[in-house]
Amino acid sequence: AYSGVGAATVELLSSLGAAEIIALDVKEPQGPITRYIETNMGDPAAIDAAAVSIDGPVDALFNNAGIAATNPALDVMKVNYLGVRHLNEALLPKIPEGGAIAITASIAGGQWPQRLTEILELLALVNREHAISWIEGHPDLVGGGYDFSKECLQVYTMLTSKATMASGVRINSVCPGPIDTPLLPDFKKSMTEALINWQVEQTHGKLATAEDVATAVVFLGCDASRFVNGVNLNVDAGFSAALTTGQLDFSTLKL
User: Fold this and answer.
1) Residue 73 contacts residue 143 (beta carbons within 8 Å)
2) Rounded distance, CA 86 to CA 44, Å?
3) What pLDDT digit, counting tens, does each position of 170-226 carry?
């Protein structure tokens, strides 16, 4: 909640009259939150402590933690996938029927069908240490960690949606393209500035703002999306649609 999409979501929720907004972050946000719990999403003990300190009910959980591939791949996986999963499962018992979970994934995770068998193998590992050993044993597959972590989140969203709905809780993800946030310089380093600029040029020539993505997050967390479950919602001005239907101009991509 300190910056970017998380901060924009806090502002939007507050403007809509949210009675209580609890923020879990490594830095204390300056936005209109009602409570801050210092939490390192790469540390399971910190996540457990935060979850225990929240009495509930938790009407909506926005699981937004994420770091770029400028960090070591294992650290990226610990925050982006393992941390997100841990917090979801720690708070799920406190989410009442009609509640919702929204995860920040990414269009960078859109290639999950090519690795579905391996991703399901990892997702089946409930024990954190076993999962870490699996990640360390598949360096070529994991790569820099970012794309693969977002592939895992997209599949995790679909895989868990049936079980959460059995408790009356929906789970979905937002999958943004490039966003104008403080993390953008890190993505330009890890993905190259040329690739990001090309992606933007292939749609309407503008970066998404944090507010653009926050509106989608709030939609997935409220009753307006009460029949939306297990969906990875692309928030990318149609880039993924154009990619799928062969409408992108790769001749202008200079890497």
Assistant:
1) yes
2) 7
3) 999 999 998 887 777 887 887 788 888 999 899 888 888 999 999 999 999 999 999
What φ, ψ does residue 163 adopt, rounded to 5°?
Answer: -70, -40
Strand partners, 63: 103
Place of tokens 């690739």: 195
- 3-state DSSP assignment of residue 98: coil
- Please, what is the end-to-end C-alpha distance for the chain in angstroms? 33
Place of tokens 């009442």: 96
C-beta of residue 137 within 8 angstroms of C-beta of residue 64 = no
Give the separation between CA 211 and CA 236, rounded to whole angstroms. 13
With CA atoms as reference, report the closest residue to 5 among 221, 163, 237, 213. Answer: 213
184: nearest Cα among 213, 216, 204: 213
- Which residues are within 8 A (CB) of 27 and not within 5 positions of it... i.e. 6 or more apart? 2
Assign residue 244 a region: left if phi > 0, alpha if psi is -120 to 50, beta otherwise?
alpha
Distance, in Å, from the CA atom of 98 to the CA atom of 223, rounded to the nearest integer, reads 8
Q: CB of 33 within 8 A of CB of 45?
A: no
pLDDT at 105 over 80: yes
Q: What is the pLDDT of residues 19-30, one digit of tens each?
A: 999 999 999 999
- What is the rounded CA–CA span in Å between residue 116 and residue 19? 40
Q: In this structure, are residues 7 and 1 in contact, taking their beta carbons and an 8 Å threshold?
A: yes
Q: For residue 179, which of 133, 127, 217, 136 has the smallest C-alpha distance?
A: 217
CA distance 125 to 106: 23
- Non-local (6+) Cβ contacts of 17 within 8 A are none
22 C-beta neighbours (distance < 10 Å), count: 15
Q: Which amino acid is at 41?
A: M
